[in-house]
Amino acid sequence: MSKASSSSQGSLTCGLDKAAKENVPTTIVVFGASGDLAKKKTFPALFHLFQRGLLPKRIGIIGYARTKMTSEEFHKRATSHFGAEVNQDDVAGFLKLCTYVSGKYDVPEDFKKLREEIENHE
Fold first, then answer.
1. Whole-number Å distance between alpha carbons of 83 and 20
2. Which of 26, 43, 84, 116 has the smallest CB count inside 10 Å?
3. How far is Cα 63 from Cα 105, in angstroms, rounded to an integer?
4. How far apart are CA 80 and CA 43, in angstroms?
């Protein structure tokens, strides 16, 4: 590995480590949050990181998609592939971090709503 790539990788690792260990606000936006990839892969992966304490302490996870749904519907969809044997207290803790914004991808006003939600988390 070249010196340049090892130092850039180290910077990324240090940044993530800093956010995880300190009080650095972090927001993850999951675009396409109502889709199959999000419910089958993205949200289960984020949940496993949460269970292992590998997410930053001040994190918000915002799902963004065109589908109009309530918070309850979003939470049900996001957790639908967690498995039956998961600790429900962990699920509840994870869901406290998750919100949902419905919007189109070609409407600037919808991205303003998303930006406001991000600012509320940070």
1. 26
2. 84
3. 13
4. 9
